[in-house]
Design a protein that fits this description.
Strand content: 15-25%
Number of helices: 8
Largest sheet: 8 strands, mixed
Shape: globular
Number of strands: 8
Structural class: alpha/beta
Order of helices and strands: EEEHEHEHEHHEHEHH
Length: 253
């Protein structure tokens, strides 16, 4: 696939010292636009596809190089919003990054995947070292309520990554009364047991730190009454999702 160097990204913001978005210290590029409308989203202003900051892949890599001495054991992570909305840019960026021996990581919810565009996803995965895949809710009706979108393509994307043996870390945000139901967690575990490419399963406790962003933007935050999960809730979810998981192993690269 031949892409022009003038493929542009619509950028939401950049973090130059990310420690939570893949191995090591990372340059994290958050792209603008998301098809999901997650009730707990902490970047509510990232949903719109209106133009924000426009950058080429060369401009991103030039910015990365300014801080490259921090990233010896890290690399570049692209997040969002939903980065797969800008897949042509991702391919261009990650291809050039691999030419420079930069570790590449994609942080996604997978909702834009479709089999009819599998050639694009296969091309992107050629240059992607690691995928952080957010599985929000295994129950389709509950996923629709939580995100305003079905999880059908999310699960199809997870199976696609498994089929091509792409290394994946699964992330599940634990929201009391919404994503912590024991039956749902057990069904999620059954789904994960059918995958052989998962290196780690992370339970991320829901937090309320993004509420002020919603209010500042003039939006109503529907989950203000939901409390953050207790340590015991998180531990219970961890037991269901990770105990004895046969492919669970730490990523060292």
């Amino acid at each position: 696939m031949n892409l022009s160097k003038d493929v542009f990204a619509n950028v939401h913001h950049i973090e130059t010292f990310g420690t939570f978005d893949g191995p090591g210290i990372r340059y994290v590029l958050f792209l603008q636009g998301c098809p999901f409308q997650c009730q707990y989203c902490h970047n509510r202003d990232s949903w719109s596809t209106d133009k924000n900051k426009i950058m080429t892949s060369d401009e991103v890599l030039s910015d990365f190089e300014k801080f490259s001495h921090f990233y010896k054991n890290g690399g570049i992570t692209v997040s969002g919003g939903e980065p797969l909305l800008q897949i042509h840019f991702l391919i261009d960026l990650f291809k050039k990054a691999k030419q420079r021996n930069i570790h590449t990581c994609l942080d996604t919810a997978g909702g834009t995947y479709h089999e009819k565009h599998s050639d694009l996803f296969i091309e992107l995965m050629r240059y992607t070292d690691l995928v952080l895949l957010d599985l929000k809710q295994i129950n389709e009706a509950k996923h629709l309520s939580l995100t305003k979108q079905s999880n059908t393509q999310v699960l199809a994307f997870a199976r696609f990554l498994n089929d091509i043996k792409k290394k994946v870390i699964i992330r599940h945000v634990l929201v009391p009364t919404i994503t912590d139901d024991e039956t749902d967690l057990k069904n999620l575990r059954l789904f994960l047991d059918g995958l052989s490419n998962v290196s780690q399963i992370e339970i991320l406790p829901y937090h309320k730190s993004g509420i002020h962003k919603w209010k500042n933007l003039g939006f109503t935050y529907e989950l203000e009454h939901i409390q953050e999960p207790t340590k015991q809730m998180v531990e219970n979810a961890k037991i269901i999702l990770t105990k004895g998981y046969k492919f669970n192993r730490q990523i060292v690269e």
